[in-house]
Specification:
This protein has 559 residues and is of the alpha/beta class. Helix content is 27%, strand content 14%. The protein contains 16 helices and 19 strands. The radius of gyration is 23 Å and the shape is globular. The chain starts with a helix and ends with a strand. The chain binds 6-O-alpha-D-glucopyranosyl-D-fructose. The site of 6-O-alpha-D-glucopyranosyl-D-fructose has 15 residues, from loops.
Length: 559
């Protein structure tokens, strides 16, 4: 039983589809997505050919950070439904061959969680569940750390008469992993959901759970103090314990989100032999043209992107390639072109997403090429991070126009606007007033319009996922960079010795709106059959790539 996980690594063969429930589908017309809405759309998800759904948090939450501030780990927020609805979702998903992966947010709870309320009152066993410290000798916060959402990581609580640590919002107090009782409670939470039929967890900011010291941090513009808590020794021990005691006995999958992660750190967290996480979500490949939490942009270089991708693709045992999430701008608006070449660039990015090694994650709406929001001002933005970055930029006296330009490019709300199911008012997402504005381009970009169009972004995602599902090389073959310019990249996927029947693949991508010449050395066999061409190429004799073109060549295996 304890070895179940290694006997069936199902995640190595499937694509995971991420749902951000509040923006996915609203069945009861209150403007917020819900579980019944998801159940009603399961056929649309299964039809893509994916094998699992990662659900962003559905737990009760005061929503300071849209569900990533949880006030009860073992229930469903009434706005999303009930535990009975959740059970129906698991069963209905299973009927369609879909597994459910829960978001596990255990670095922090909500300040409205019963544990925190008891901890404020120093009630055992909760007294030390959080990181409480008295004021410093001058009466201020215990150290100089600054958080992910800007500002001090400490808030004074009148009731307890001490400061508590929060790396995110003040309504997200950090749990204290020096207390063994906390980890035991976390195990109970995980078992609760495993018993309800979930197949694994996406573990939120998992590499910062343990704070090795609360000493002052080194001077830094953002997230000061991080050297005291990123991937500590105790964190690694905690992950091994969760794997041994909870995950492996259930055959469950754990994919961790890790922040400020260099390659050796990522290897340690996800190395198969160390038995910590099965796979890792990292960020650097989405920030090759971004600084400061992606809020400041500079020119894109395809060369830099390939180098970043190669890092994880070659360096990690099992990568989790992705291009979008609820925290990132839409990829077609970022590395693509959401104007003239919208369709072609969305498809090119789909080719990239589906031809990388590992377990790919596809975010809701990516499969129809949804774009960044069309908001015109901060009053339409909901995201706590965007608002805090705005406050910081104001303090730095960044002029209003530039400020909005950067906020609009980097805001997490870009990916959080409701899914565009149809051209109707409400976009088929809701009959009510949506919690976040719907992009006006839903009249043109929507699922219904693409459903039966063989050239649509959706049709290409179906085709690409099917190609990947049928190809051992694309799923697990080696990744070899071939070459890159500022505009174009080429890489090869090379069959493992046992998979040689499938052959090797060469992928060529143009990230610009111009026709670009490519070095002839990138194509080693001009007679290689064309596996996929987004511009209808008949053969592999290619000297230049068309704007945002993607080309996949199949070759006999060199193995
Ligand atoms: O992307 C980020 C850093 O560059 C941050 O926006 C993000 O907060 C960070 O990656 C952690 O994300 C996760 O934990 C947060 C939550 O707000 C995010 O939605 C979640 O994905 C706190 O729980």
């Amino acid at each position: 039983m304890a070895q179940a996980a290694s006997e069936d690594p199902w995640w190595e063969d499937c694509v995971v589809y991420q749902i951000y429930p509040r923006s996915f589908s609203d069945a009861d017309g209150d403007g917020l997505g819900d579980l019944a809405g998801i159940i009603g759309r399961l056929d649309a998800i299964a039809d893509l050919g994916v094998g699992a759904i990662w659900l962003s948090p559905i737990y009760p939450s005061p929503d300071a950070d849209n569900g990533y501030d949880i006030s009860d780990y073992c229930d469903v927020d009434p706005r999303y439904g009930t535990l009975a609805d959740f059970d129906r979702l698991v069963a209905a998903a299973r009927d369609r061959g879909l597994r459910i992966i829960m978001d596990l947010v255990i670095n922090h709870t909500s300040d409205e969680h019963a544990w925190f309320q008891a901890s404020r009152r120093r009630e055992d066993p909760y007294t030390d569940f959080y990181l409480w410290r008295p004021p410093n000798p001058e009466g201020g916060p215990p150290n100089n750390w600054t958080g992910f959402f800007q500002g001090s990581t400490w808030t004074f609580d009148e009731l307890r008469g001490e400061y508590y640590l929060h790396l995110f919002d003040r309504k997200q107090p950090d749990l204290n992993y020096d207390s063994p009782a906390v980890l035991e409670r976390v195990k109970e939470v995980m078992r609760f959901w495993l018993d309800r039929g979930v197949s694994g967890f996406r573990c939120d900011v998992i590499n910062i759970l343990h704070k090795a010291s609360l000493a002052d941090g080194r001077p830094r513009l953002i997230v000061r103090g991080r050297e005291h808590y990123v991937s500590t020794e105790r964190l690694h021990a905690i992950l091994r314990e969760l794997r041994r005691d909870v995950l492996d006995p259930a055959g469950a999958f754990a994919i961790g989100e890790s922040v400020f992660t260099d390659l050796p750190m990522a290897q340690e967290l996800s190395d198969a032999g160390r038995r910590e996480l099965h796979a890792l979500i990292t960020f650097e490949h989405l920030e090759v043209d971004r600084l400061f939490h992606r809020y400041v942009s500079y020119p894109f270089s395809a060369r830099r992107l390939l180098a970043r991708l190669a890092h994880d693709q070659q360096g990690l045992d099992w990568p989790a390639p992705y291009l979008e999430s609820h925290d990132q701008p839409r990829i077609v608006s970022h590395y693509g072109d959401d104007g003239r070449y919208w369709r072609r660039s969305a498809i090119m990015l789909g080719v990239l997403a589906m031809t990388l090694r590992g377990t790919p994650l596809v975010y809701q709406g990516q499969e129809i090429g949804m774009t960044n929001f069309d908001f015109t001002g901060l009053d339409e933005v909901d995201d706590v991070e965007t608002r805090n970055v705005d406050a910081l930029m104001r303090r730095l006296k960044i002029p209003a126009r530039l400020r909005w330009h950067w906020l609009a490019e980097g805001s997490r709300d870009n990916a959080r606007t409701p899914v565009q199911w149809s051209a109707e008012p409400g976009a088929g997402f809701t009959t009510g007033r949506p919690w976040l504005p719907i992009n006006a381009n839903h009249r043109r970009i929507n699922r219904a319009a693409q459903e039966h169009d063989p050239d649509s972004v959706l049709a290409w995602y179906r085709r690409l996922i099917a190609l990947r599902s049928a190809s051992a090389t694309l799923r697990r073959g080696a990744f070899e960079p071939v070459g890159a310019t500022r505009a174009c990249v080429a890489y090869r996927r090379v069959a493992a010795p046992g998979d040689s029947a499938d052959g090797d693949y060469t992928v060529l991508l143009n990230f610009t709106a111009q026709r670009r010449r490519i070095p002839c050395s990138w194509i080693t066999d001009v007679a290689a059959p064309v596996g996929l061409s987004t511009v209808g190429r008949p053969h592999a004799a290619v000297a230049a790539l068309e704007p945002f073109e993607a080309l996949v060549l199949r070759q006999r295996s060199s193995a």
